[in-house]
Amino acid sequence: MAQAAIELIGINKSFGAVRANRDINLEVARGTIHGIVGENGAGKSTLMSILYGFYQADSGEIRVGGKPVSIHTSNDAIALGIGMVHQHFMLVDNFTVLENVILGAESDALLKSSITKARSELDRLEREYGLEVDPDAVIEELPVGLQQRVEILKALYRGAEILILDEPTGVLTPAEADHLFRILKQLKDQGKTIVLITHKLREIMAITDTVSVMRQGTMVATRTTKETTVGELAELMVGRRVLLRVEKGQSEAGAVKLSVKNLTVKDQRGVTMVDNVSFDVRGGEIVGIAGVAGNGQSELLEAISGIRHAVSGEVMLDGKPIDLTGKADPGELRDRGLAHVPEDRHHVGLVLAFEENENSILGYHDDERYLKGPFLDVDAIMADAKDKIEKYDIRPANPRLKTANFSGGNQQKIVLAREMEQDPGVLIVGQPTRGVDVGAIEFIHKRLIAMRDQGKAVLVVSVELDEIRSLSDRILVMFAGRVVGERGPDATEGELGLLMAGVEHQEAAE
Amino acid sequence: MSTPYAKLPAWADYGLIPLINLSVAFIVAGFVVMLVGENPFRAAVILVEGAFGKGTGIAFTLFYATTFIFTGLSVAVAAHCSLFNIGTEGQAYIGGLGIALVCLSFDSVLPWWVIFPIAIVAAAAFGALWGLIPAYLQAKRGSHIVITTIMFNFIAASTMVYLLVGALKPAGSQAPQTRNFLAGAELPKLNWVIELFGAKIRSAPLNICFLLALVMAFLVWLLIWRTRLGYEMRTYGHSPKAARYAGISETRIIITAMMISGALAGMMALNPVMGDQHNVAIDFVSGAGYVGIAVALMGRLHPVGIVLAAILFGMLYQGGAELAFEMPAISRDMIVIIQGLVILFAGALEHMFRPYIQALFASISPKSVGMQAVRGTGA
C-alpha cells in the first residue's frame, strides 16, 4: 500500500451531549480517491471539518504525510496542502471569479499583481482540467454548477495536494458529475489525494479506490471499492436494507390541471432562461423535468409559482390563467390549490430561525384555521404541527425546536408536510431530495407517489436522474431553457444524458 | 450534514451573559474613574445610591426609563422586520409636535383624562407619518432606511426649530418653546406609588406615562409573537425570499412595521412633554432616540429585556447626574463615556464572551446546552 497522505487516529469530537465523532481511525493512501459515505448526521462533515481546522478534536491525532500535525485554522490546513470544497460554497457573491480565487491568497497590498498572476494561473488550471469559467463573471450570476468549479479552482490555486470534496455532486447533473469525476481522476494520476464525502453510492462505486462507511459518529467499515457492492455499503450505512427504487403502479392520468404554454422567462441580466416552453401536467401523473442545473428549471418553477416575472406565454391552473407579471400573490395561488416546495429550503421554503411549528404554517399563515381574528391561534398551530410531525415522522418530534437544528432531511419533510397536507390539486417540487439521506428519500418518494395516486398533478424538477426516472410517468428534458425532449419512465440514463447535454437539440438545429 | 448548533439555557442567555457584559463595562469604567484620580468604588456607590438610594432618585430613574422604553420598543419593532430605524429621534421630536397641537388647542377646555388619549393618538400618528416617508422610499424606491431616517432626523430638527421660533412661540417670548400648558394638559404623577413604600420624594417627574410604556411593552410582545402581522414581520425580517414565497407583500410589511415603529417613537414625547416640562421646547428629545438603539439591542429586541435595559439606562442617567454633582473631577462627559462603555460591551460586543460561556456550559453539563435535541436520527 502506498504511503498514507492522511492518518486520523482515535479522533473524538462532541458537541454537548452529541458525540459527532467517536474514536475515528482513518488512513487515506497517497494518490488515491478515498470515499467516505454515511447518512446525514453520521459525522462525515464534522470529521472533515476537524481535518480542515474548523473544529478542534477533543482527542486524537492527525498525521499528514506521516508527521503529527496540529491544525487550528483553515490556514494551517492550506499550508499543509489540504484544500476543501464545501457543500455550501464559501464564495463572496458579489465578487468576480478572479477576486474569489485570490481572496486570502493576495500576494501584496495592491491587487494588480495578484490579479495578473491569478489570471494566467487560472487560465492554465482551466485548460489543464477542463474547468471552464469566465474569470470576470460575478459569482451570484453564475449557476451553482459553475460556482462549484470556482471552489475547486480556489483549492487548486492554493496548491492543494489533498482535496476534500463535501457532497460535490449534490448540485450537479450526471454529465457534470462525470466531468467532475474525470477531473478528479486526472488529479489522482498526478499524485494528488482526494477525499470524497457523499451519500451517493453510485458515485462511490464509479470513482473511488477505497471507501469508508460512517454511521452515527463511528467508522463502521473500510473496504476496497472493487471488492464491495452497493448493497453491502447501503446496509453498512443504515444498518438495514433500503429500497433503492420505489415501487409504483401504473398512473391513471386525468384532466389537465396545470398547463404551460409558450412560457418565456428572462433573468435580471435579460438573458433568456426559459425559452418558449409548453407542457401539460394532468391529475394523477408525475411529470419530471430533468436537466443540468442552470438550464432554466429554477426560473421555470419560480414563474409557475408566481414569484418570478415571465416575459410572455401563459400558465393555466385548472383552466384559469395565473398572473405572470411577477406580482402574483403566492397566497392566492395557494388558495387555488397550487402548492410549491421550493428548491432552496434554507432561504425560501423555511425560516431557519423560526420554531418548527412557525414554519409549518408559512404561506398558510392567513388561513383562518390558524387564526383568531388578528391573533395567531397558538394551540391550533401547535396541534397542527404535532399532527404533521407524526404523519411525516419528523425527528426530533419537537415543534418548539428551532428549525435550523433539524437535519436536512427533516427540514425537507417539514416543507413537504406543510405543502402536502393542504391537499393541493397541483404540487410542484424543486429538488425533492437534495441533501437528504437514503432513508428519507424513500419516504419522500413514497409520499409523492401517494399524491399522484390521489389524482393530484405533480411536477418534479430534479437534477438527480435516478430520482426523475424512479418517480416520473413522463420525463421532460430541459436544455438551454428549452424542453428538448419527452420520454417515458423507461428511458435509459444514456438517452436522457444525451438530451441533457443538448446533443439531440444541436443536431436538430443543424 | 448540519453543523451542531450550540445553545445556552434561557437563564444564561438572557441573564448571565448580559450580567457579565455589564460587569466588564463597569470594570473598564472603573479604570477610567481611577485615571481621573477618583475612587471607583465610591463612584459606583454614588451612582447606585443616586439612582436607587432615595425615593426621588428612583422616581427620576423610572422617568428616564419610561422614555427609553418607548424608543427601545420603537427600534425593536422595526428590527424584527430587519429595518434599522435610526429615525426614532426625529419621529419622537415630530411626535412632540402632535402633542403640542393637541395640548395648545384643548388645555383650557378639556380635563387631562380626555386630552391624554387624544394626545396619545396625535403623538403616535405624527411619529408614524414621520416613519412612513422613509418606509415608502425604502419599499418603493429602494432608498436605504438607515440613510433616509438619519436625514429625516435633521429634517425633523430643522422643522421643529422653524416652528418653535415661529408659529408655536408665544408672542413676545424670547425662548424657543411653546407656552406652558395649562393644568388640563398635565399628566398625574406617580410619585405617590413610591411614597407608599415609605420613601420621601421632593419633586420628581415620574408620571403615568410609565404605566403606558409598560402597556405598550406588553402590546409589542403580543404584536410580534402572537399576531399574524408580527409573524409576517418576523418572516420578512429573517428572510425576504421566504416572505415573498409565503405571499407577504414587501411594500406593505415595510410600511406597516415602520409606521408602528414611528408611532412608538412619537409616544415617547408624551413623557417629557406632558409629564414633566408642560411645554414643547427645542431639542427636548436630546438623544433618547439613539439611546433607544442601545436599549433595544441590549434587551435583545424582547420587550422584557427592553424594560430592564431601559431601567439600566435610566439609572445611568440619574445616577450619572448625581455622580457629576458629587465628584467634581467627573464631568458630564465622563458619564457619557461610562454610558458608551455599557453600550459597547452590552450592545456592540454582546457576543464577545458567548463562546467561552458555551464551552464552559458544555463541559460542566452537556445536557444544559440542549445538544441531545440537535440529533436528527436518520433523516
Automatic annotation (TrEMBL), chain A:
* Record-stated family: Belongs to the ABC transporter superfamily.
Q: Where is each ABC transporter domain found?
A: 6-241, 258-505
Q: Which GO terms describe its cellular component?
A: plasma membrane
Give the top-rank taxon of the lineage listed in the UniProt record for this protein.
Answer: Bacteria
Main location (coarse class)? membrane
- One Pfam family it belongs to: ABC_tran
Give the UniProt subcellular location, in the record's own words: Cell membrane
| Gene3D superfamilies, sorted | P-loop containing nucleotide triphosphate hydrolases
GO MF, any single term: ATP binding
Extract the PROSITE patterns matched here. Answer: ABC_TRANSPORTER_1 (PS00211), ABC_TRANSPORTER_2 (PS50893)
Which chain positions lie within coiled-coil regions?
none
* Name of the protein in its database record: ABC transporter ATP-binding protein
SUPFAM superfamilies per the UniProt record, alphabetical: P-loop containing nucleoside triphosphate hydrolases
Which UniProt key words apply to this protein? ATP-binding, Cell membrane, Membrane, Nucleotide-binding, Repeat, Sugar transport, Translocase, Transport
Please spell out the taxonomic lineage of the organism that makes this protein: Bacteria, Pseudomonadati, Pseudomonadota, Alphaproteobacteria, Hyphomicrobiales
Q: Which organism is it from?
A: Mesorhizobium atlanticum
> Which InterPro entries does UniProt cross-reference here?
AAA+_ATPase (IPR003593), ABC_carbohydrate_import_ATPase (IPR050107), ABC_transporter-like_ATP-bd (IPR003439), ABC_transporter-like_CS (IPR017871), P-loop_NTPase (IPR027417)
UniProtKB/TrEMBL annotation, chain B:
What's a Pfam family this protein contains?
A: BPD_transp_2
The entry's localization annotation reads: Cell membrane
TM spans (from-to): 12-37, 57-78, 113-133, 145-165, 204-224, 253-270, 334-353
**Membrane topology of this protein:** Multi-pass membrane protein
GO CC terms, sorted: plasma membrane
Protein name as annotated: ABC transporter permease
PANTHER family recorded for this chain? ABC TRANSPORTER, PERMEASE PROTEIN, GUANOSINE ABC TRANSPORTER PERMEASE PROTEIN NUPP
Native source organism of the sequence: Mesorhizobium atlanticum
What lineage is on file?
A: Bacteria, Pseudomonadati, Pseudomonadota, Alphaproteobacteria, Hyphomicrobiales
Q: Name one GO molecular function term.
A: transmembrane transporter activity
